[in-house]
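Hi R.,

Here's the chain you asked about this morning:
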Amino acid sequence: MSALRQAIVLDPRNPNLYLDFATVAFAHQSFQVGIDVINDGLGLQPRAAALYLARGVLHVQLAEYDAAEADFEKANELDASQSLSAAAQGLAAMEANDLDRARAAIEKQLARQPDDALLLYVRADILSQQGAEPGTPEFAAALSSAKKAVSLKPSLAAARGVLAKLYLQAGQTQPAIEQCRKALATDPDDQTTVYRLIQALRKSGNTAEIPDLLKRLATLREEAARKERERYRYKLIEGERVQR
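And the predicted structure, written out as tokens:
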């Protein structure tokens, strides 16, 4: 942190340095400190869309959803070509348990960027969380969005995870297993996908792998808990703020 602060002093107009600081603040649950440093960066670079996006993410962690929404809107206004701010806006609304608003934000951006894999994945996830049932137009839209997201970006493991979940709901066990395996090839530490693979294998009657997968899931949970404890050992605390 000392080196990063010194870098900001030496190159105060470099937005990447403020983003690096925000990343460390996020990892150590020091969200307000991260916001304050991003504010410093925006004071010098008020048109840096990435800084508004980062600040919005930090606001979400503090449950300051209106502030987060304003930041995501500003990021999108400054750089409408990128989809991250719209996706983040949708995810923030999901965090606030406002799935209708989340879906509206994503649909609005998809009208501009219909072939954006990230937005398609988020729409599929929102529809799934809204309880779309097989045989309904909403379920068909979720399945179509997830499939398209995967075809556009095969490495997007989260989209494969949602697609596997939808296949399981539809009783299509084998495609669900296939999507789980492909998702884990990209992100082998995804506990949800490991658990979903166990479910799919049980339904298929192919249980030979399940004991090893259960051990793997237990190991992943232990490792995630260890990493979480390690992250939370330190927090960033602000001292006196120096005026430039």
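The longest helix spans residues 210-231.

Let me know if you need anything else.
M.
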